[in-house]
């Protein structure tokens, strides 16, 4: 998923806390958030620092006005992107097979943020889980409809893991060393 696709996907589903978000979607959107929020905030800080009077150390009126305006824009951008960022984080946790409530571990002092970071960088579950189908799986193929119209993509049926028979029967034991059942 490209940077633009990730940003548009996250903004389209700005308040959707269900489903899954692959790693690229989450991290590209988080990069977008940092750039869009950080650029005006950093610019405002630089304007305030550069526009100080060397004798008094106080910012000039024009520097203070521009710096505070840029920081105000950054705060508004941060508020506007809070819910989409939270939703993308919850969907990313869903993609790793965890509940969205694991987000709150980030509030634990010192280690919570690191634990959350480890959860967010882990690979996706390669199969459908309770939060939805694998977002990286190819869509199922269906043959064309007679008459030349393309067939509609059909959603996959619910996922059932393959049943593997290892020959185990409850109550029967294997005789040690012989490989035979008793």
Features:
5 helices; single chain; 45% helix; 0% strand; mainly alpha; 182 residues
Distance between the termini: 55 Å
**Overall pLDDT metric:** 81
Helix count from the secondary structure assignment: 5
Radius of gyration computed on alpha carbons: 26 Å
Shape annotation: elongated
- Tell me which oligomeric state these chains represent: single chain
Structural class: mainly alpha
Largest sheet, if any?
Answer: none
Portion of residues in helices?
Answer: 40-55%
Number of strands: 0
Order of helices and strands, N to C? HHHHH
Low-confidence stretches: none
What percent of residues are in strands? under 5%
Characterization of the model:
This protein has 182 residues and is an all-alpha fold. The chain has a domain at 3-121. It is built from five helices and no strands. The chain is elongated, with a radius of gyration of 26 Å. The termini are far apart. The model has no long low-confidence stretch (mean pLDDT 81).
